[in-house]
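hiii so um. not sure if this is the right channel but i have a protein structure encoded as tokens and i wanna go backwards to a sequence. like what aa goes where. can anyone help
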């Protein structure tokens, strides 16, 4: 069995486990990894991620926590496989995607981090829609 380089033998923290999953997704695309993973593009994995997300939704409907956790993990890993392929294709990097997403979520929560007011879920949804509309116009 191959081992993954540069990882703690037994990850302990959430960050270490996240790093381990990212490293695994990247490793599976190497010559020492998996032919199936190497064969698939980011678009292929994105399609699989949609399928996994649907399975997660079904598990949530069923209410079995162990099944929910499993499907959540499958969805996350498939997104990381999408990332690994996208990085190879030169589409984006994990660091930049995390940064852009963090900034976007801060912007979209303008009722918390900005000057919008919203106290009900309906008001929050309206603020979200307003910010998103401004983003599409290039005003964000």
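sure thing!! here u go:
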């Amino acid at each position: 069995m191959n081992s993954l380089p540069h990882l703690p033998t037994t990850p302990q923290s959430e960050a270490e486990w996240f790093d381990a999953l990212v490293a695994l997704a990247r490793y599976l695309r190497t010559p020492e990894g998996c032919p199936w993973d190497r064969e698939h593009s980011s678009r292929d994995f994105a399609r699989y991620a949609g399928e996994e997300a649907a399975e997660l939704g079904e598990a949530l409907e069923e209410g079995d926590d162990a099944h929910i956790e499993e499907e959540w993990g499958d969805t996350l890993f498939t997104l990381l496989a999408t990332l690994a392929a996208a990085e190879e294709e030169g589409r984006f990097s994990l660091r930049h995607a995390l940064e852009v997403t963090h900034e976007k979520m801060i912007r979209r929560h303008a009722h918390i981090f900005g000057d919008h007011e919203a106290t009900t879920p309906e008001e929050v949804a309206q603020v979200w829609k307003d910010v998103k509309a401004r983003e599409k116009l290039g005003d964000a």
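oh and The mean pLDDT is 93.
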